[in-house]
Amino acid sequence: MRKEVSINVLNINLEKIKEPILDLGCGSNAKLVYYLRRLGMEAYGIDRTIKNTLYAIKADWFEYELKPNYWGTIISHLSFKNHFRRNHFKKNGNHIAYARKYMELLDSLKPSGEFYYTPDLPFIEQFLSSDSYIVEKNDIKDIGGFFEYNEPLNIQSVKIKKINS
């Protein structure tokens, strides 16, 4: 997917993005990671299909250990969230492991750090403490010029801001 599409769909303001940045499920080319680095930002990617480089790590997200209070921004456009949704609704799905990793991702944010993703995960977002996180959702109407509708697509992008460490 084009890097501009991810930024647009997720409503990321590049002038206010917090570093370091992690693209979880960055894809085999890590296009968003390299785009952000060309803009002078400290960005890294994790994907099990990528070759290891200085900025991209070949790893399964369950095996990659996240440091608490480390990331300024985490981005996950479709990857982790689609797998989480599928496992949540699947009989005998691995939803507990995904829920734990989701909470580990949130814990790895610095105070005021932000986690951007789509699609939304209402089955877990509703349980986040308002003392620790602010959840903002936006209806997606345009997917980078691929589709454009006057009505929402019933898909939401999400920004979760950590307000406590």
How would you characterize the overall build of this protein?
InterPro entries: SAM-dependent_MTases_sf. One of its GO terms (molecular function) is methyltransferase activity. This is Methyltransferase type 11. The protein has a seven-stranded mixed beta sheet, with helices on both faces. The chain has a single domain, classed as 3-Layer(aba) Sandwich (Rossmann fold), CATH 3.40.50. It has 165 residues and is α/β, with parallel strands linked by helices. The chain contains five helices and seven strands. Strand 1 (21-24), helix 2 (31-38) and strand 2 (43-47) form a beta-alpha-beta unit. Helix 3 (79-89) packs antiparallel against helix 4 (95-107).
Mean pLDDT: 84
Choose one word for the global shape: globular
The CATH topology comes to Rossmann fold
Structural class of the secondary elements?
Answer: alpha/beta
Count, helices: 5
How is the main sheet built?
7 strands, mixed
**Low-confidence spans:** none
Keywords: Methyltransferase, Transferase
GO molecular function: methyltransferase activity
Protein name: Methyltransferase type 11
InterPro entries: SAM-dependent_MTases_sf
Structure summary:
The protein has 165 residues and is an alpha/beta fold. It is 26% helix and 26% strand.
Note the main attributes of this structure:
globular; seven-stranded mixed β-sheet; Rossmann fold; SAM-dependent_MTases_sf; 165 residues; 5 helices; alpha/beta
